[in-house]
Amino acid sequence: MHRAITLSEYVKKRNGVALGEPGSMVNMLKRSLGAGSFYLFWQYWNPIWGYYLSRNIMKPLSEQLPLWLAIILTFAVSGALHDLAITLVKWQLTFFFTPWFSLMGIIVLVTKKFAISYGEHHWLIRALINLSLIAVSLVLTRQYV
Fold first, then answer.
1. d(Cα 8, Cα 78) in Å, to the nearest integer?
2. Would the pLDDT of 140 be above 90?
3. How many CB atoms lie within 10 A of CB 71?
4. Which of 43, 48, 38 is CA-nearest to residue 18?
5. How far apart are CA 141 and CA 134, in angstroms?
6. Among 9, 74, 86, 98, which lies 20 to 30 A Cα-Cα from 80?
7. In this predicted model, what pLDDT tens digit does every residue of 68-116 receive, in sequence order?
8. In the chain, what percentage of residues exceed pLDDT 90?
9. Using H for helix, E for strand and C for coil, what is the string for the chain?
10. How many Å is the Cα radius of gyration of the chain?
11. What is the pTM of this model?
12. Are 65 and 54 in contact (CB under 8 A)?
């Protein structure tokens, strides 16, 4: 029987250091921004949030739906939870993060499908590419939502 990975193990696997250890945030930023693909960026970004999304959203969805749809819906759920948080803080209905995160999920799928990788480039170039993909999706979302 397969043993479920703990949050602590997941964070150490993604960050290279244990949960709460000094350097955890720096490692997350270095690894995610310097990832050689947009798909890998999301493997390293915010491992605590990623752990719960993976365990409670992605895994159950991927057992019932095609993987591509489970990925988009996982990004959408993450966005919806961000929208809910902003709505509760501002007491004003917010619907921005759901489409933005869904679009980023689509970009993940497209870049993975076409094997778009930039791992051979310097860390700064990789970071600029990853940030550019996030920025382009943000601008497109702002334009149409």
1. 21
2. yes
3. 21
4. 48
5. 11
6. 9
7. 999 999 999 999 999 999 999 999 999 999 999 999 999 999 999 999 9
8. 93
9. CCCCCCHHHHHHHHHCCCCCCCCHHHHHHHHHHCCCCHHHHHHHCCHHHHHHHHHHHHHHHHHHCCHHHHHHHHHHHHHHHHHHHHHHHHCCCCCCHHHHHHHHHHHHHHHHHCCCCCCCCCHHHHHHHHHHHHHHHHHHHHHHC
10. 16
11. 0.95
12. no
The reported pLDDT for the residue numbered 1 is: 59
Tokens 């999706």 identify what position? 137
The two structure tokens encoding residue 142 = 């702002």
From 35, 44, 40, 46, select the one nearest 127 (Cα to Cα): 35
Q: Under a CB-based contact definition with an 8 Å cutoff, are residues 57 and 75 in contact?
A: no
Q: How high is the pLDDT of residue 59?
A: 97
CB 84, CB 72: distance < 8 Å: no
